[in-house]
Amino acid sequence: MDVDDIRGTAFGSAPVPLSVLDLVTVGSGYTATRALRTSVEIARLAERRGFTRHWVAEHHSMPGVASSSPAVILAHLAAHTERIRLGSGGVMLPNHAPLVIAEQFGTLEALAPGRIDLGLGRAPGTDGATAAALRRTDHLNEGADEFPQQLAELTRFLDDDFPDGHPYAKIHAVPGPVQGPNGRPPIWLLGSSGFSARLAGVLGLPFAFAHHFSAANTVPALDLYRESFRPSEVLDQPYALIGVSALAADDEKEARRQTLTNALSMVRLRTGRPGLVPTPEEAAAYSFSPLEREFVDSWLANVVSGTAEEVRDGLDALQKRTGADELMLTANAHGPEVRLRSYELIADVYGAPTA
Questions:
Q1: What are phi and psi of 210, to 5 degrees?
Q2: Pairing state of beta strands 85-88 and 53-56?
Q3: Which of 100, 119, 284, 288 is deepest in the core (most CB within 10 A)?
Q4: Residue 297 in 3-state DSSP?
């Protein structure tokens, strides 16, 4: 595995590489089919404009998010792109048998050699009841013992190197190394707290932090990752990206109007009422309670939005404050055109290539 499989390349005047985190959002009045088609359009735009990677995230039982099966979506994106890196941001490891993930991502690596990232999370990506339904158990294996063991097992399946005498020594993830020399996806650890930050550092793996929904923990987690980092065969020094909610529009008023749709979606999700992403008109007419308004104000404080120039300035300041090696942008809004326009504007303002 080459370190270039991990480190991105900045385009234009961007301070660090820029990438895309795609939640495959479904707006009111739209369908999952349209949301998945939009993902292809975003991936092609990102590839054309020089973004480093396009990741999709595993979520379950959320009507407004159509990314329950990252491996399926990534195979589709691979068939419609040629160069951009594609990956999971992330697959929730405790939801799956490690062998299944190794087989899925070995298949993706065979479909798109040298372009696949395997980002792994520790949370279920849903509520407890749905997690129990996924795992066929009420025991949610996310603790300090289970996750590192699951990660070690997955890594051995990917490398096909269980020691002699191990119960899995004669089990092979296919496609995989048992078929001959080939590459394999680099593993990233994802997190919104210090647990995965420390583990990624100790193992010498790249780390992705969910700044877009855990902004208060960003700097402490990145500091912990860097302090814990030990050089490995994968990396000789830390490499951390952060997910950032960023939405650019042609004017500041429109950007505010669009970001409120995502804020209302989050209010509904946090209060047990998940649904499709509301329209800007619905969000503008919604009567927020005092507690909801407090949540919305806190949520929007960590969204970088406005004109392209305002978003550029906000991203530059965030990168400088956190020292992130890469910014992964998620543009969450009701309509597909708004999301596509946002990535185009950000690429333009940084002077990204046009082909």
A1: -85, 70
A2: parallel
A3: 119
A4: helix
Residue labelled with tokens 């301070």: 15
Rounded to whole angstroms, how far apart are CA atoms 47 and 30? 25
Give tens-digit pLDDT for 143-153: 556 899 999 99
Sequence-distant (6+) residues with CB within 8 A of 162 are: 156, 168, 169, 171
DSSP 162-219: PPTT-TTTT---SSSGGGSS---PPEEEEESSHHHHHHHHHHT--EEE-TTT-GGGHH
**Which amino acid does the sequence have at 1?**
M
Copy the structure tokens of residue 123. Answer: 């949370």
pLDDT of residue 5: 84
Tell whether the model's pLDDT for residue 281 goes beyond 90: yes
Q: Is the pLDDT of residue 142 over 60?
A: no
Is pLDDT above 70 for 306? yes
Q: Please, which pLDDT band fits residue 132 given cuts at 50, 70 and 90?
A: confident
Given a contact cutoff of 8 angstroms between Cβ atoms, the answer to whether 222 and 198 are in contact is no
